[in-house]
Amino acid sequence: MKDEQEKPLWEPTSRELSESHMTRFIAQFNNLGINSYSALYDWSLAHQEDFWIALWKFCEVRGEMDSFSKPLSVFAQDRKFQNSRWFPNGKLNFAENLLWKNDNTDAVIFYGEREGVQRWTFKTLREHVLRIRAYFRQIGINSESTIAAITANTPETIACMLAATSLGATWCSVAPEFGPTGILERFQQISPNVLIASERYFYKGKEILLEEKIRQTAEALSSVTEILVIPYLESTLKIQGTTPYADVQRLQPDTSPFEQFAFNHPVYYLFTSGTTGKPKGIIHGAGGTLLEHKKELMLHTDLKEGDTIFYQTTCAWMMWNWLVSGLSVGATVTLYDGFPLEDDGSLLLEMAEKESVSVFGTNPGYLREVASRDLLKHRTFNLSALKSVLSTGAPLLPSQFKWFYKTFPKHIRLSSISGGTDIVGCFALGNPLLPVLSGQLQCRSLGYHVEAFDEKGNAVIEERGELVCTKPFMSMPVGFVGDSEGARYESAYFTVFPDVWHHGDAITITKQGGVIVHERSDDILNASGVRIGPAEIYRQALALEGVQEACAVTMNVRNEDRIVLFLILSPEMIWNDEKEKKLCHKLRSEESPRHVPWKIVIAYDFPRTLSGKTSASAIRNILQGKTVLNKHALKNPEVLGFYESQRENLLTSS
Fold first, then answer.
1. Element (H, E) at 266
2. Which of 248, 507, 603, 604 is the most buried (most CB within 10 A)?
């Protein structure tokens, strides 16, 4: 098994190697003896300041690294990790760096559930942005302002974000499916000056109008002085008391020069899911976000000018912010809004074929659906333009890597990537120079001191440990909303290991330099004093044909913690004693007797966060007799009743 996992599933061709951005970047340092990724990674840690200067120049960032001091000040170290700052005297305009291209090639392509495709060229996008910018200036928006958005994933949303950030305003967006409580829990923390909202959206064929949600939100936010409503495709709906987007697009464009703001000036407010309490508002700086995204897109993803990038996301998830930064490379950004598996589930693959998508971003759940529906067996898609498939949101299992390369064209690089809202980027991700190995993320991110720490704070290789970053990094938050003293920021990441960022993921760094992400540290199962990684259970459960998803939690029964495994099956799968015995045998023989669950329960769905991730904590809390906090932070709180009834059944059966 181990030998099979170490056999490359994909390797770059000599042409791919020579033409990659990463190879071009490395070539600058050949005189230093740097001629491989591992050598570059080590150098990027040992010479961080030189690395980020070189990256700034290579990525052609528009701005000034240092507008005051000579010699150049790249890094201002503070006695506290979180207070250190990159390019403390640097200046740039975030939007300018995404709007440098101004021609008639496609900038944004939009697909929705309803028929109709929207295409904006770079020239069109710029015109929209400059007119919205004029409107924002008229109503007094400036670098102290905050813009909040309840918007579908459309080109107009991107234009509004760019117009806001061009003036130094800070942007925060949620998806229109958020409920009123979830919206207000976020927006009341940031006191927005302007509310932007889509008039409607579609999901699973249903049209959902947002007029009432817009009204409720605006009434609850005393700071809001203007409401801008944007259309969905060619709609002409009008909502009383708001400014229609069409009116804004009649204004003369504001073509004044882009003002340069501090490198660490806030650009985004991003919020955690809020399933374990009030959502934390994280402040991300413009420069760190831009430079990190350009590094990840250009070097790690090998995105080039003229490529087409797609990511399956809503405006509420950090992958939307990451995707939009593709404009800074000169790539075409492709958007989809709605249910991704509409009709027979082939819509996104059809879109990838039609638009010659170069980079296709998704998640393990979508890939499981493609597998269970056998989409590529029943349909033929021309994916010759597709260079890379990215997956995040949860770890990709070895079985999914194996399935992918049996199903998709062999030339595609499958890159599992991992990071988070906290860093609006990745700690571990893909690499165009390295082979793809089953179950592994290809490498650690350049310039990021990522380690796996054991319980004593020692870095370990080929052993499970805690994901940490031992030195300040480019895209770390500027701060938390409403946390002027930094106490919440410090308690979130720096209490486990002193002055070391503790991310909360269990990982293994492999001898090849790759990373295996096991699970969130909070999800570790502690059964009768033995710590078990649920990913080890999922690996065996999901290898059974017909098992689509798995979630394992512990439940205290008669003063003993026992594992309960919940499974979601494909519609045609019938669960029986024989299949249960087969799974338990596999767990006992391939993992250990401790991995065998006390009970296996078939579920119809799992509680999910608003970004679609399984909330194991909600299931765990119910089975442990605790209250599930912030039910409104779940996409489907109605499923909690099922788990409450299962708790009673399990207690009765004990």
1. strand 266-271
2. 507
